[in-house]
Amino acid sequence: MKILGLNLNHIASAALLDDGEIIAASCEERFTRNKMTRNFPFHSIDYVLEESGITIDEIDAVSVPINPSINLDMYRNSYSGTHRWFPDLLYSIPNNLFQVVKPSTHDFTKQQFSFGADHSLDVYYLNHHRCHASTGYYLSEFDSAAIFSFDGFGERTCTLWAKSDENQIKVLQELTFPQSIGSVYETFTDYLGFQPDADEWKVMGMAAYGNPERFLKEVNSLVELQASGNYELDMSYFQFNNFDRPGHFTSKLVDLLGEPRGKNGEFNAKYFDIASSAQKLFERIMFHCLNHLYDITQEKNLCVTGGAAMNSLANGKIIENTPFKNLYIPYAPDDSGLSIGSALHLYHGIFNKGHKVKANRTSYLGPQYPNTEIEKLLTKYNISFSESDSVLEQTVELLIAGKVVAWFQGRMEFGQRALGNRSILADPRRKDMKNVINEKIKYRESFRPFAPAVLKEKASMFFEIDTDQQGKYMESALRVVDDKKHLIPAIVHEDGTGRLQSVDKNDNPKFYELIEVFEEKTGIPILINTSFNIRGEPIVCSPEDSLRTFFTCGLDALVIGKYIVRKQ
Fold it and tell me: Whole-model pTM above 0.90?
């Protein structure tokens, strides 16, 4: 069975699932170069079909991770009383019928478009958080697990508690909008002068530089934790639920915390302290919900997913603040991963096929380019390059010499984090390297940290790791071992953590071997790894993207396939 998964919400994407195995997936931004685009993923669809060697006519079903029938319960005369053009009937008729036949549940919605007796296009609209939960559970190695999904909102749900039950996901509890932990964090992103639902990384980066106690009493007063495991916001401080009014907060929040920073405002101690207090509030709510999930499941394994699961600072503290023993967070827990999650939910949850994902749990699902194509491009643009039979050794020599190297190899990663195939690499031993990359290459704020990529077998020597799966996808910020901090100062954030990637030889042998060679030369099994892009652009996808980015920033060298390009 071949399922084409689509996501049209935050970061459009497409994925191809063939009998339970993920064959290919990509975000549309990688092709259009429009970061976080929500445009229909035509390019991604073309890619996954070509990579799979099939045509659209061979697709058995299309999965979409949003179920609009949930919003048809209430009659909307302005939409359904008349129709402006005939396709409006596709929603106006069910909107009217739902007033006569009241649906008790909305598990999914199906559209079937028949093109003759032997061909049809079946489109399934699936519940948003069921698709998030499927991304978490079906990509994990757990047979049995508790599942927690949370974000701004999807349809009406903001937070979902669930568990696996004989290969199915059983929902135990849901919390609906506007009671949203994700929207609370977006509010502080807005208050601090950043773009909500896009710049939450910046708030996390600021949090390490602040005093969380300074505003903790004030921010804690915004939320009441309940014995049921739920939480309730004091909505007099928020207006993110009013989609006709700009901004996420009311004047009452300004009265509580003082004037917001503003888009181009100064970064002073007050705003760092508020970021730190906001992070503590997020963690307080999250751990409250997770402890309740443990109480009602008694599971030792936990899958965490949804857009709010991108909060790596909180993720790194889950094990020590809850009774769970094992943790899995997927490589794309946010909406970009819902092309995969919706296909998995349709395959397992609706069609009840198979037992788990067959084998392919890798994040390396995007395009790759042969050396012949790369060389042809370099020659076309008359770019000086060298061909190397010892790319690993020469790359390490550049890194040891203090060079910042762009690394372009193999299939592109899926998701928002570069995991060693479209990466910028540097020596973590150099204390100034963080500022060098931020100022000359990434063009971003100085408080933004960089991730360490570490050999999996050596990770526990440098980081306080709670479970074997932690850090696989840069999903968790973990404390650096005290007596190792001086060895790798460029990746130690202000709070003593590093958002690590634990590199498994089976997942990415070439990147693993590169770090091995670096360790042989320096004794350090770690490299700085950040995404190969500059501020405001998506991660590079093609060789053309890599060359354009390389020549427009302060990178020293580009290692692309077996070729090395240096700046003269």
Answer: yes
